[in-house]
Amino acid sequence: MGRAQDWPTQRLFESAVIADPHLVVAQGLARLLSAVVGAVKIVGSGEELIDSARHSPPSLVIAEVKLPGIGGIEAMALLQSQKPKIPFAFLTTTSEPSIALKAIRAGARAYLPKTVAADELLRALENVAGGRSYVAPHLTARMIAEKRPALPLLTPMQLRILQNISDGVGTRELAALLGVSVRTVESHKYLMMQELRVHTTLELLRRARADGLVHS
User: Fold this and answer.
1) Residue range 156-210, CATH number
2) CA angle 122, 124, 125 (to 5 degrees)
3) Residue 126: CB partners within 8 Å, gap ≥ 6?
4) What pLDDT does residue 48 have?
5) What's the longest Cα–Cα distance across the chain?
6) Which of 100, 157, 184, 190 could form a disulfide with 180 if both were Cys (CB 3.0 to 4.6 A apart)?
7) 4-146 has which CATH code?
8) How many Å apart are CA 184 and CA 175, to the nearest integer?
9) Dist CA 189 CA 47 (whole Å)
10) DSSP string, the chain
11) Domain residues of the chain, as ranges?
């Protein structure tokens, strides 16, 4: 994506957290950001991101969508309730328009594939710093072209959890089955309720069955 010294030296953000499971990629991005960000921290999972942002809220989060445990979009949704809200930019290998749409609907300020050039990343960060949004132009065009209705968008992990809940599997048993923490299961359950606009587990299951998200 280019070199940090190619960028202007004015500071856009006081601090940033990079959430990416690939350390080499994250370290390269951190070097690039050093030209416009005061301090950069790297985390490798959704749960680490949540813990870090809650303990010391950064001025910006740049995240991969696909994070171990709690995904990037889900982590953002959980953090959006805290004040002040932390601006999120996604720099990701996931370029499906439906996922980009989900991220924007959930509150992301920028969404770009990792194939972008450094100058486009800088343009996106300048927009975010100025209180504006930025989506890679080719993704915007594809999002418009699809013209799909705003249906509930659940991740594969959430669908698996939902099916197990429907089958009567308890939270602790489900956490052990999936190899994640109980908190991760509960977080996914909360996010599914938010996405499906329900308030109880019973309502969640009724809505999921009505929408064909689980099978009997």
Assistant:
1) 1.10.10.10
2) 65
3) 12
4) 95
5) 58
6) 184
7) 3.40.50.2300
8) 8
9) 15
10) ---GGGS--S-SEEEEEEE-S-HHHHHHHHHHHTTTEEEEEEE-SHHHHHHHHHHS--SEEEE-S--SSS-HHHHHHHHTTSSSPPPEEEEES---HHHHHHHHHHT-SEEEETTS-HHHHHHHHHHHHTT--EE-HHHHHHHHHH---------HHHHHHHHHHHTT--HHHHHHHHTS-HHHHHHHHHHHHHHHT--SHHHHHHHHHHTTSS--
11) 4-146, 156-210
pLDDT score recorded for residue 39: 96
Q: Which amino acid does the sequence have at 119?
A: D
**What does pLDDT average to in each consecutive run of 10 residues of the chain (216 residues)?**
62 96 95 93 95 94 93 88 84 87 86 92 93 84 56 76 90 89 89 86 87 73
In the chain, the amino acid numbered 106 is: A
Predicted model pTM: 0.71
* Residue whose tokens read 């809220």: 57
Q: Which residue has the tokens 């698996």?
A: 160
What pLDDT, on a 0 to 100 scale, did the predictor assign at position 156? 76
Amino acid letter, 13: F
User: Is residue 182 within 8 Å of 47, Cβ to Cβ?
Assistant: no
| Lookup: tokens for 65 | 């969508």
The tokens of 82 are what?
A: 């805290």
